[in-house]
Each structure stands twice: as structure tokens, then as C-alpha cells.
Amino acid sequence: MTGTEGFVLGVDLGTSHTVAMLRHPDGRTRPLLFDGRPLLPSAVYLDTTGRLHVGADALRLGHAEPGRLEPNPKRHVDDGTVQLGGADVPVADLFAALLGAIAREAVATTGFLPPAILTYPAAWGAARRSVLTEALGKAGWPAGTSLVPEPVAAARYFAEVLRRPVPTGSSIAVFDFGGGTLDVAVVRADGPGTFSVTASGGADDLGGLDIDAALVEHLGKSLAGAEPAAWQQLTEPATLAQWRARRRFWEDVRGAKEMLSRSSFAPVPVPAVEHAVHLTRDELEASADPLIRRGVAEAASVIAAADLKPADLAGLFLVGGSSRIPLVARLLHSELGIAPTVLEQPELPVAEGAIITADQPAALRYATGTAAAATPTPTSPTKHDSPPPSTDTRADAPSPVSPAGPATSPAGPAAAPAGAAFASATPASSAPGSAGPPSTPQPSATPPSPRSHSGSQPSTQPASTQPASAQPASTQPASAQHASAQPASTQRPSAQHEEETDERLRSAPVDPWATGEAAAWHTVAGPPIMAPSSPSMSPHTPSWPSSGPPSSGPPSSGPPSSSPASSSPASSSPASTGTPSSRTPSSGTPSAGPPSSGTPAGASSTGAPSGALGPPHQRGWTPPAPPAAAGTTGRRRRAYLIIAAAVTVVVAAGAVLTWVFWPRYGALDYHALSDPRRIQPIVPVTTDFSDAEIYRDRAYFASVDSTAGGIIGVVAVKLNSSKPLWSSKDGGTAYRWKSMIALPVGLALFTDFDSNNGYQRRMAVLGAADGKLLWQRTLAEEDEVFFAGDTAVVADRKGKQLLGLKLSDGSQRWSLREPESSSSGRSKVLTVTTPTDLGGPATVFGRPFEPDLADDPRIVQIGADKSARVIDANTGKILTDRQNVAQPTDEVVAHNGRLIVLQPSDQRILSYQLDKLGEPKVVYTTQTADAQLKDVTPCGDDRVCFDEEVGYDGKTASVIALDVTGDADHVAWRYKLANVETIVPVGEAVVAGTTSNDTTLIDGSGKQIWTRPGEAARLDGGNLLEFSKPLSKSPDDPALSGRHLGDEAVPLGAFSDIRSDTCAWNTSTVACVAEKDFVLQRFAG
């Protein structure tokens, strides 16, 4: 490694989410995880004790008191302060709270705060950057922290991680399309590892939230007429329950948008409406098209401002979560004529690219209290002709007609203690809606945020308490003052006035309930990271002043401010089992910053905090506890623990929902096939058996030489290397070899029948670590082997029993006799598949290369007596059974907790629950005389697909998708396709092969995407690997293409002398047996 050694931290402080990547001393780069997720919501919440919460905790607490939540602090960088709960909080303090959470997670991982690089938008001048430098000081980050423009970091990732050629003097464009903003920049390569921004621009009011608003407006056009009462409640909520319903509706719209990045349709539940409405990808693209075209036009103007044409660029790199929408890449490609590069996780490259800049000595570094030099003058920002719609779903949003005057708060018995700003965000029951009536042009729009910067507060916000003894207001630095508003102009602004300050034009939609993944970190034993004293920070800085009228009492009681999240300082409880944070530092845990001897910064010698998360830059300041009556301390502490535990559960539930709705299968970053990395076999490759398998980060290759007694040689190699991990001939010899399967413990090899040895076969398992023989077993002619859990289940036909063998050594764990039957037929055994198994790479026949054997270790046995029993493969225990279910010859599928049975006698399909095998549900009955059903295949979490034809005539066949959760005959779609032979699921789409060697892709709504010769295989639930011709055991040169469902295929190039029938693949690499050796080639990532 060159440049900076050891741990290095890169941080992308985003509008909606913040990402922190950590490079380890061995060169590995991994994201810091916040509650198990790499995205930290940029939301900040101020509680009644003056404590700032960030991430998922902030979002959850904001549900009860939206007026105390700021979901997008970065959007207010020009405003100096943001009003939260009646207090004016400096924007730098909001940034500092986020940076403090990142630092504490880094300290928990490494033991200290590593050298760090923080990114910022290229259009930010000195004034905006000074807010970042102030926040770094307040958060206690060292003065050596570097600042790097976001597009420069993205360019370093593009060139050095993706290894895309960017010759010196050439330029790339970075299109950063996030949740709240669009930033476009042209970056020039000035030399090896050196980049500079030559032009920049974008739109502060264009992002994923604006697309959400467009979708809500689209849905409103139909709901306003069909369900006027429900729509009015969503656009003009009057009660807290209606505000919550509105929030859920927006979350569901966002989830549908994300799902449409990988599916062709998505349901949207509507509160108070019985049935969900359905959005299609066409509707998404029609709604988003004007917005995305605006972004494309902005990109074109920035490229032109750099005196370049799109064809002059060395690349177009898409980053930011909203770039996942397929239409973004498609429009950029069609309008600019250059194919963009977009990753499966486009939120991460900027932070990882920032780490690479640590190796560059010229990286910009901040000095506490000063601003760095300005960046190159950006292009003129794109502006709306009219104010953009707002997506503010807060209950305290003011009326667009006439806000009421200041509200009064009933007097309380005592004033709030100094340093704490108490406020309540109680919406008045008579408050007007946040949107006009459904007939208005923008039914979903809401007015701008009610947090005023002029010192007034809407009527829905009770006044905060400000005692007479409060300290005077702090003096704002020059960087935090309001810039004067400027009219729209087509001229390039000067470096001193490049930031648009017109609130009407600068405001982007705000949705404070964006899904989140991270929690605030605050415990008594783990104080916030304090900045050392500095001349640039006044020791007399007071707590945040209230801008509302004074009140003599605490917050008023009553709904909804009496909810636990708003009326109790739950978040200030001591560290305990119920603390929401996932990691609680002990008293001896060093705080962030360079390690030193003695007491860690921010902690006393005993580990007690020297300050709390009030004003983080005020040394020794501790917010006093709320007044409590004598004898109530223990009860109150218990109450706090209960509340903290409840918040933890709710945050965890929110993280689960985020995972469910987040796009799981974005477009892979396809590129031309790399030059083959060749691996030499230890047994010559001949016309005898040869094969390849990929499992996790390695490939296994096998070849057999019949002239040497049929010995099999296996080579294992890392996917990123051409040097073998090991080579082995321990598999032995055989008359003929049949197949091999990669397993968690290694590689299972199977011989073919040997007529000279009673048609017996042999199974040999080689260890993953060194290729040595773990165990082997002789199999009879009709014996079968199934893998589930950590067990190999052998169906011993001669012994009429099932045997459970331990995968690691082949020792017998259990045996189970087959059900007694007068029939001479043999039983059928099925492994239970899960949605995960259908979302990974698979052969052209649908066999997963790497099934998760542990996610459902059950097997199902269909006996000759028509019984069914569910068995735990690891223990041999019969979990449940039932008589008269199916014949062993019937088509049966066990998937996602269900047993699906095709009954040939009456051509109907039944569904059983695997956990109890109760009464079946008839989910399909054919309505056509002489119809035949076949090829039943799971094709979604709760779907099965099958082929229906009339009178055994393949020309009459149709592929049918059946929703097994609905009522009888709940057909999701039906597509007529003659001579169907195979059905392979790809998410909820299917690839259907025919006897004429044609392949048809049918999307999740039953629409044909294409029909073409050749074959196609699943890479994941949203991507395919397409072959131009049928797979062959002989050396051949088929062309390959990669395709994301719904997008055009990306040509990858052609193989050269590859035995394509032997190939295995994952989402980035293909492993094949060539004419004389083995090859690895990358095609994505």
C-alpha cells in the first residue's frame, strides 16, 4: 500500500443519508455499519433536554414531534440556524451531531478516530465549507481532517477501483442523483491520481423526493375521483391519526418506487381504501420523465460549460441512490450518446473514493475556524419556473392560506432549567391541511417547512420555555449568516455568490420520515466527542436560544404531545439494556481522536462524561436533569428503560421495512469480458468429464483423463487470482464421472453408473481448505442424495430408509424408515427452497449455484402411500405429517413455507402450509377440457408458474403465474407460448425455454420482453446472463450479453474456445473449462 498506512476513514455527508467507509491496514475497505446498515440517515432531532439524536432514532422520535426534526440538514447550509422545537440550532451543530455519531462508531471499530477525509459538493464555496469546518471542530475531529470535492472522490473510485481508463488530460462526468439534490460535475485527470473539477452545477430541488411527489400527484388524479374522502384525508389531514396515515402512504409510495427499479409493477396500499392501487414501471417513468430529463439537460449544460462534448468524455459515472432508477441511465445514454456506469450500491463510491485521495498529499485540509479557498466557479444552477412541490408530511405544517397567530402555552409550575429548550409540537385539531383540495393542480403538495428563520413560529408549535437566566444568543460566524436572495440568472455566478439563497427556488421536497438505518449514540459512560478549546470557539457560547415567545412552564400536556417520545426524556436515560444504540462503550473506551496517554478526550479519569450532547462545543456543560419529586428517581429510571426498549424495537422494525422496500436487484455494472485469467489443470482436459463451479469467493475446476484410469483432478482458485489455492487428485478414479456440486464444506464429486460393478456409484467430498478427501460413500443405482442444513440426506432405496450424514465427515446422524405401503413404488424427497435461493446465480435449468442450505433445513418426503411428512434434515425429527397428499410421481414443490401439489387426476393445484400440513387450499382448477398442467416451478416469494396445454398439443401451451396467497384461481398473468420445455424464475419474471431452442423472457406482469435463440441464465433476481447459442460441451465461441430486467441487453463480447456447458457464474465472474485449460473472466463490477 502506498501513501497513508493503517486505518483511513472516508465520509460522504449526504442530504438524505450519510456514508462512512473504513479502509483497514490490509487494504480492505468496508462501510461502517449503523444498526447493521451502511446508510446513516442524515436526520437530526432535538429533544426537550437539549440533546441531539441522529439517524433512525431521530426519525422515530420525529414521528411524535415533527417540529423537532430536521431530516435534511445539508439543505439548510446557507441558513445559519434551523428552528427545532422553538430553539434556533446552528446548522454546524446538526452536522457535528452526525459527525459525532460516525466518530463514535469508528472508535468502537478501531479503538481511535482514524485519519479522515470528508467530501463536499463541488459547487460549495468558502462560506458553505466553513460550516463543515466549524462542525468538524465541534465534533472533536482533528484539524488534519481533509476536505475533498465529492466528484473528485467519485472520479478516483471510477479510475482506481473500477479501473476504467481515464488518460491524463481527459475528463469524466459525475452525475450524483441523491434523495434530495442533483449534483453534476466534470472532472479532469491532471495526472496519475490527480483530478480537478472544471465545471459543476446541478439542482438543489431535484432528487428522489421530487419523484415521490410526482408519483403521489399521479395517484391523486385517480384517487381524487374514485376515493374522494380517503384522498382528502391524505391531502388535508386534521387528526394525528390522519397525519400518520399520510406518512405511511408516502412511505409506501417510496417503497413502490424502489421496487419498480427491479420489477414491472408494485402495489401501493392506500389508507382507508380496501384494495391497494398498482403502479407500473411505465407510470413511474411517465411521472419521473420530466424531472429526469431536467437532470439530463443540466448534465449537458455542465459538460458544455467545460468546453466539452459528451463524446469527448472518458466516462459518465452515476452515483447517489436515485440513480438506481433504470430511466436515469437510459435517458442519459439516449440523450448524451454515452453509456453511463452505475453500481448496485451507488451510495458508496463517493465515500470510498475519498479514502483513495488520502494517498494524495495535495488533499485540502481544514483549519479550525477558517474557510478554505473556493472551488472552480460552477455553472448556473437549474431553476424551476415555479416553486417545486413540497412533500412535507409533518403535522405542524402551516396553512398555505393564512397562518394563525402565535399560540400560547398554559403556565406551568416551574421554568425549565437553563440549557434546555423545552417545546411541544402539538398540531391543532383544526389546523388546515397541508395541501389544497384534490382538484388543485398539486394535490399532494405541501407548503414550505414551518421552521421560520425570521423568528416567528406557526400556531401549531407551542412556545418554548426560555428562563430569564439564559445566556445571551451566540454570535453567528460570517459563514452562517443568511446570504441575500438573488434573482435567477443565466450567468455563471462568482465564487463569492454562487449559492442560491432564494428559499422558494432552493427548497426541495422534505419528507422527514424517510426510511433510516442508524441510531444516535448517547450514554452516560460514552459522552459525545468534545472539541478541544480553541481561540475560534467562544467559551461563552450559550445553549440554543428560543425564537418563540417565552413561557413560564414546561410543555403543555395532552394529545399528542403526551406521547412517551415527546413528554419523557427517554433518550437521556443512562446506558442500559434498553439503550437503543447497538454498541455501548465501557468506561474505559477511548473517545475519538488520536490516542494519547492519560484520560481520553471527552471523559474524566473514571470514564464519566465531561460534557453531554447539548452544545457540543461548550466544554463542561451538562444539561441538568428535569426536576423530579423526591422518591421518584427509581420509578422514573425504570420508565426510561421501558421507553428506551420500546424505541429500540420500533427502530428495528423500521430497519426491517427499509430492507424490504429497498431495491434488492439493481442493474449490474456490466462491461466487456476481461482478458481470460488462465489456470493450468493438474489432469489434462480431454473429451472426458470436466466442469466448473463457483462458491462464494472461489472457483472449483475439474478434469478427467480416461487414459490414466479415469482419475479426476480438481483445482481451487480465488476469483480474483490465477494462482491455485490447492490442487488435488484425492477424488480417485472411476469408470466415468458424472457431476460435481460446491458445498460449504468443499466439493462433492459423483461418479456415473458402473455396469461392471453392479451399477453402483460413488460420492467423494473434498475439503474446502486443502482439497483432501473428507469422506466418500458408495451409492446404489437408484439412491439419491440431497443437501439441506449441514446434512447430506441419502435416499437408500434398497434399504427403504432415509439416512442423515454429517457433511463435514460423512458420519451417520440419523436414519428414518420409509412409510409402510403395499405399493412397490419408491418415495419422493424434496428440499425446501426459499426466496433467497431464487435470487442468486443459477444454471440455465434453474439449479442455484450457491443455495443457502441453512435458511430452511427441512426436507419433505412423499411416500408411496400418498402421505407427506416434513423432516428436519439436521436431526431426522418428523415435524409434521399428513395422509393422502400426493403420489410420488406427482409434481410437488416445497417453497417459502408451502407445499404446492399438482393433482393430475383433476388437473388442479393445491397449497399446504408446511408448518402443520393442515387442510389444503385449492389455488387453481383448469377451466379447459383435456387441459394438462406441468412444469410447476416457484417464480416469486408467493407465486408458482406452470405450463398448461390442451390435449398434449404443445402448440396450445400457455405459461401461467399463480398467486398462491390469494383465493382460488388467483392468476397473476397468463402468456401463450408454444412448446414450453423449461421455466426458470428471475425474481417474479420467468425465462421460458422451448423445444425449438428459443428463449422467452416474461416479466412479472406477464408481458413478453423478448424471444430470441440461445439460452439465458439467472444472475440474481433482476439480472440475466444471455448466451447467443445453446451451451456446448465442445469448444465454442458464443457471444454473451448482460441484461437488467426491463433494460436493453449490454453486449459483453464472445468466448474463445470455451466449453460453455461447463461454465459457472456469479454476479461478476464466469468460470469455464476451455479447450486445454481453465479460465476466469469478469463481466461486471
TrEMBL record:
Biased composition annotated in UniProt, kind: Basic and acidic residues: 495-506
Residue intervals of the Pyrrolo-quinoline quinone repeat domain: 714-831
Coiled coil: none
Region annotation (Disordered) ranges: 370-632, 814-833
Swiss-Prot/TrEMBL keywords: ATP-binding, Chaperone, Membrane, Nucleotide-binding, Stress response, Transmembrane, Transmembrane helix
Record-annotated membrane-spanning stretches: 639-662
InterPro entries: ATPase_NBD, Heat_shock_70_CS, Hsp_70_fam, PQQ_rpt_dom, Quinoprotein_ADH-like_sf, WD40/YVTN_repeat-like_dom_sf
Listed Polar residues bias regions: 821-833
Keyword Magnesium: no
SUPFAM superfamilies: Actin-like ATPase domain (SSF53067), Quinoprotein alcohol dehydrogenase-like (SSF50998)
Gene Ontology MF terms in the entry: ATP binding; ATP-dependent protein folding chaperone
UniProt feature, compositional bias: Low complexity: 370-381, 397-437, 456-491, 527-546, 563-632
Compositionally biased residues, Pro residues: 438-450, 547-562
Statement: the UniProt record of this protein carries the keyword Translocase: no
Record-stated family: Belongs to the heat shock protein 70 family.
Entry protein name: Pyrrolo-quinoline quinone repeat domain-containing protein
Lineage start: Bacteria, Bacillati, Actinomycetota, Actinomycetes, Micromonosporales
